[in-house]
Amino acid sequence: MAATETSSSNPSLFYRLFFDKELRSVTIQVITMALIFAFFFFIVNNAITNLEAIGKGYSFSFLWDASNYDINQTLIEYNSRSPHWRAAVVGLINTLLVAVAGIILSTIVGFLLGVLRLSSNWLINRVVYVYIEYVRNVPVLLHILLVHGIVVNSLPIPKNALMAFDGTLFLTNRGFYTPKPLFEPAMWAVLIAFIIGVGFTIWFKGYAKKIQDATGKIYPVLWISLGAILLFPIIVFFLAGLPVNLEYPELKGFNFKGGLVLRPEFVALWLALSLYTAAFIAEIVRAGIQAISHGQTEAAFALGIKPSRTMSLVIIPQALRVIIPPLSSQYLNITKNSSLAIAIGYMDIVATIGGISLNQTGREMECMTIVLAIYLTFSLMISAFMNWYNKRMKLVER
Amino acid sequence: MKLFKTLAVSAAVALASTSGAATAGTLQDVQARGELNCVVTTGVAGFAAPDDAGRWAGFDVDFCRATAAAVLGDGDKVKFIPTTGKTRFTVLNSGEGDLLYRNTTITMSRDADLKLTFLGVNYYDGQGFMVPKALGVTSAKELDGASICIQTGTTTELNLADYFRSNNMSYEPVAIETNEEGQVNYLAGRCDVYTTDASGLASTRGTFDNPNAHIILPEIISKEPLGPAVRQGDDEWADVTRWVLNVLIAAEEAGLNQGNVAGHAAKAGSNVDINRMVGTEGDFGSMIGLDKQWAVRAISAVGNYGEIFERNIGVNTGLGLARGLNAQWTNGGILYSPPVR
């Protein structure tokens, strides 16, 4: 009878599974883990079996074969004789370029919009509100196509290029051309001056803090730092006799040759991603600032702290703690959204190794593994950096 | 541990059963499903594109319909799967599609390395260049330094890189995912040149507001034999689809067309070639797992090769393509079907 069994000192396993909380939870966890493992085992095994069934192995040796295609935007040496792995690196650099440029621009625009959104001026406040709501409620792919369409359709062909700043900037629908600086050896002096400036600034910051802690005297650290980092190298640059030559873009045949070029695909992707993400960042910044109670400002004022110092020493450090975690997600989003580049022909990692190479070699699994690994690495790196920064900005509890 | 073993065993059983299902013949799968999954392009006017009523039409589409008519008895029992240049082989190899008719160039690596079986050629093509007339260019040799729009994921990129390298010319490639985006960029002047197979250029030009403002340069820089393909390893299905293609070509040669095929099928005539095709002599259908009327259904659904060509891409259509290489071998072309015998 059941009643007698429950009272026995050595209950059965079946009984303990029901009534021993610890054993029960351990069992459930083991089963769950086993199911998860079995699931992944099944999926991977299935892929391998099916690939073998149609006679396709899993090998990365194709990466060393000539790629046989050209890429328009290459920041490293590349031509159609280069191997596939080099095409992948070209794509990777293009992805990094647009992601980093996008993160910088979206942060600047996002913070500006976020602050303007809180403006007491009704007109500014409403205009920014409408802008944010419009931008973040339209899919980013449409923004990319829209900006690309505007650049390509509204700007003239190279023959009728819009010239600005006396021949130093040409606007065409094939790209924006500016002169390319070619440095002379004396440029080293300027670089050294810049390094000295940075070194001085780091030392001076510590020195100023020490003086402030000891005597309460405050130095204008910002202005002195700017002078050391910017003004000093500029003075050296002029003293060295302007050691730079400009290579001007010139219209030759179909296109401009020479100079630096920003292609419409890059411009469209960069602007669209930045403006789109900026709308989200603006809302995050607004939330961050509003999260700090007004009492903090009043308390700072009561202590006699100037309004500008109240903002930089009291409000912003606290607001940043609210802002940084969601900001990291936006940085990850911009990186991942850059894979939409293929829609307008920007040659990022998805378009090169995950696109043309994949198609030419037919190695879907291998190419997609590479693309996946690259995005994962890049995203994890951003996450790690933002976590580190978040820890640094966290409230230090004593 | 025992638990894991149980799971592993059940997983293995599931695996074995699914891979077992995948090896059943495609012909039986299609017949059981009652629908042919045909992989086509996302839209090349004249070759495969939905018409005003949303019904798929075009040169490649008609071959799909002919196959469906032969196998299922109805040319409308086709599900068209639009694919980009990039996704087409994956769609076919994964089993989502049964048959690929998508302006696909036959190459050795696709045949051997991508594990496809090509069935023959339904259009002999070659890569060409289109430029605006206003540019004043008359030869591809004058294109040094030009920006060129390419539809990505095709053999086009390789030919282009080879051609410019061997002629010591430079160019800026603008690789675009689809034909439509490529057209938009070309018309906006993002590129000086649009390049793809000559038939594709004619198709693209036909959709422009002012087709006469653009010319196709005389240089053809590659051989592009376009043909249908199936997955490697199902010879029975490859035979069915290959002979549907062959019989449409052979029918034109023998003078069998959409109008007279019913009459020929009703009573054996004096032409033994036609008799074999329409099933009044011999039983060729059963050799490929179909009935005697297989070719009759295919031809009455869409007509013979010549009729398909003229209706979709011939000189009287917007594309205005001449038969050229695609004429029958008896008419100065290289279209040459093995005999149905």
Question: What features would you describe in this structure?
Answer:
The complex is a heterodimer of chains A (398) and B (341). Chain A has 398 residues and is α+β, with helices and mostly antiparallel strands. Among the domains of chain A are: 2-53; 88-145 and 262-393, MetI-like fold. Chain A has 13 helices and eight strands. In chain A, helix 11 packs antiparallel against helix 13 (364-393). Chain B has 341 residues and is of the alpha/beta class. Chain B folds into two domains: 25-124 and 226-331, D-Maltodextrin-Binding Protein, domain 2; 127-222, 3-Layer(aba) Sandwich (D-Maltodextrin-Binding Protein, domain 2), CATH 3.40.190.10. Chain B has helices at residues 2-22, 26-33, 59-72, 88-93, 108-112, 156-166, 179-187, 198-206, 235-254, 261-266, 272-278, 284-287, 294-302, 305-312, and strands at residues 36-41, 49-50, 56-57, 78-83, 99-100, 116-118, 123-125, 127-132, 146-151, 171-176, 193-197, 214-216, 224-226, 229-231. In chain B, the strands form five sheets. Chain B has a five-stranded mixed sheet. At the A-B interface, helix 3, helix 6 and helix 12 of A face helix 1, helix 4, helix 6, strand 10 and helix 7 of B.
